[in-house]
């Protein structure tokens, strides 16, 4: 297998689909695709909008985690399906344990990356619920002021654009600093695997490195 073939195989496999024996892609391979290869300590939290263990978006998040550049530690928020629907009656100092975990994880993160499909023309309920919990207490939620970007893949013509737009709107109202310049709505044909294309995976990797490079003060200036 040639060098470029090995690089394609390495990019193609996320956690659960990752070939441990495949060679890590070269610095040139990544940099040709606009992906930085070395960062200082940077920890983004990733919210995945699908609960299915083998969903395309879950696997994309896992591939980003496995293949992140040096210095980037991707922290996928687990247990979103365990969150109760938001209810102020059960919120507060004695909030449910999954809620406490999510809030602590988002609060500790440098940035937030959402990787989500589209359900019935909008964002999945589990993702909306996670944003609701992360937005409370009002004005001081864990998500407040966090730079946040939204990407994902979905079948059909538009790749989940409606869901991604709705997620940005919800996150912005919740207090996040939405990075509109990072947008990737990847459309795949039914029966195909988005992770089978190395360039597609490279685009998702570029999204997380762009998020790492985001500087709110520079944008504001």
Structural class: alpha/beta
Order of helices and strands: HHEEHEEHEHEHEHH
The largest beta-sheet arranges its strands as 4-2-5-6-7
Rg from Cα: 17 Å
Strand content: 15-25%
Helical fraction equals 25-40%
Please count the helical segments: 8
Number of strands: 7
In short:
The protein is 38% helix and 19% strand. With 221 residues, it is of the alpha/beta class.
3D architecture notes:
The protein has 221 residues and is α/β, with parallel strands linked by helices. Helices cover 38% and strands 19% of the residues. The chain has helices spanning 3-12, 27-31, 56-67, 97-108, 125-134, 161-174, 198-213, 216-220, and strands at residues 38-42, 44-48, 70-72, 75-76, 111-115, 147-155, 177-188. A five-stranded parallel β-sheet has the order 4-2-5-6-7, sandwiched between helices. Strands 1-3 form a two-stranded parallel ribbon. The longest helix is centred in the C-terminal third of the chain and has 16 residues, at 198-213.
Task: Give the arrangement of secondary structure elements.
Elements: H1 3-12, H2 27-31, E1 38-42, E2 44-48, H3 56-67, E3 70-72, E4 75-76, H4 97-108, E5 111-115, H5 125-134, E6 147-155, H6 161-174, E7 177-188, H7 198-213, H8 216-220
Parallel strand pairs: 1-3, 2-4, 2-5, 5-6, 6-7
């Amino acid at each position: 297998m040639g060098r470029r073939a090995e690089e394609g195989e390495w990019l193609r496999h996320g956690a659960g689909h990752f070939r441990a024996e495949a060679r890590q892609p070269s610095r040139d391979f990544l940099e040709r695709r606009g992906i930085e290869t070395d960062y200082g300590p940077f920890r983004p939290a990733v919210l995945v909008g699908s609960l299915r263990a083998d969903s395309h978006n879950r696997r994309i998040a896992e591939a980003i985690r496995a293949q992140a550049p040096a210095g980037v530690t991707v922290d996928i928020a687990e247990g979103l399906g365990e969150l109760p629907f938001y209810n102020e009656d059960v919120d507060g100092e004695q909030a449910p344990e999954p809620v406490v975990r999510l809030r602590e994880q988002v609060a500790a993160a440098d940035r937030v990356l959402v990787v989500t499909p589209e359900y019935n023309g909008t964002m999945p309920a589990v993702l909306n619920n996670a944003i609701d919990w992360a937005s409370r207490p009002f004005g001081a939620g864990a998500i407040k002021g966090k730079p946040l970007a939204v990407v994902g893949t979905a079948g059909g013509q538009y790749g989940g654009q409606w869901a991604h737009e709705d997620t940005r709107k919800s996150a912005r109202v919740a207090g996040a600093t939405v990075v509109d310049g990072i947008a990737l709505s990847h459309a795949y044909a039914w029966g195909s695997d988005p992770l089978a294309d190395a360039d597609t995976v490279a685009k998702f990797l570029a999204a997380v490195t762009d998020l790492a490079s985001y500087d709110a003060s520079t944008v504001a200036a």
